[in-house]
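Morning!

This is the sequence you dropped in the shared folder:
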Amino acid sequence: VQLQASGGGLVQAGGSLRLSCAASGRAFSYYAMGWFRQAPGKEREFVAGISRGGGRTYYADSVKGRFTISRDNTKNTVSLQIDSLKPEDTAVYYCAADLLGNGDPLSKYDYWGQGTQVTVSS
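The structure's back. Tokens below.
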């Protein structure tokens, strides 16, 4: 599966963004999906994940209540709604596909998109 993330940009603190990830290739519904981010000088970290059917979601503690992951299996897309942005949310955001797991933080994600930059100004 090939993944293409989009929707990043420069926003002020308190603002919102909606990231999207379009998938092509093998059937999208085979995969649980996740979003990760990597800030400058830091390791990549799990942000949110969603099961194949969308019935189960997972979030990092740092984003609970502000980030919402969703998917549309008819359009082969997964989205991440980001509200109440903080400067510490500044990072490159990546979507990833998980063939065997449930989209939880400990899953082994098999395929990765190229990333989209989110920059939050204070």
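Headline: The longest strand covers residues 17-24.

More detail when I'm at my desk.
O.
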